[in-house]
Amino acid sequence: ASLLKNDETKALTPASLQKELNNLLKFNPDFAEAHYLSYLNSLRVQDVFSSTHSLLHYFDRLILTGAESKSNGDEGYGRSLRYAALNLAALHCRFGHYQQAELALQEAIRIAQESNDHVCLQHCLSWLYILEQKIFDSCVLLEHSVNKSLHFGLP
């Protein structure tokens, strides 16, 4: 994962990395991090089906194992669900599926508003701006996003 993030040329080829991941998942299908790495690997080869499949399995396993609630205190399930919807929106936007991205983003916003998660809402607003740029030309969202980011101390 570190090599994919920092220097993709030093990472295993997509096919060999996927083979290794499949071996890991054969013995431990609940290994959430392996599903996430499979998601990143699928993005490398622009495989929308496999990347979506792996992303959903990552968040499913994260919720099932309870790892999210252990690492983030009181609201593990809700946090996983809203960030799963946000990541799914980003994935659809990356592949040009703007209507699906908008639906996933609306779900992430709804869950984040219910949880009063301003950081997630700010990320949603940023993705909403990106999505709106793909469809319309709007500077109002960007100005609002920058002001809110400054208010919450976000980059």
TrEMBL record:
It comes from the Eukaryota. Residues 35-134 form the Anaphase-promoting complex subunit domain. InterPro entries: Apc5 (IPR037679), Apc5_dom (IPR026000). Keywords: Cell cycle, Cell division, Mitosis, Ubl conjugation pathway. One of its GO terms (cellular component) is anaphase-promoting complex. Pfam families: ANAPC5. The keyword Cytoplasm does not apply. One of its GO terms (biological process) is cell division. Belongs to the APC5 family. This is Anaphase-promoting complex subunit 5. It comes from Chunga burmeisteri (Black-legged seriema). The gene is Anapc5.
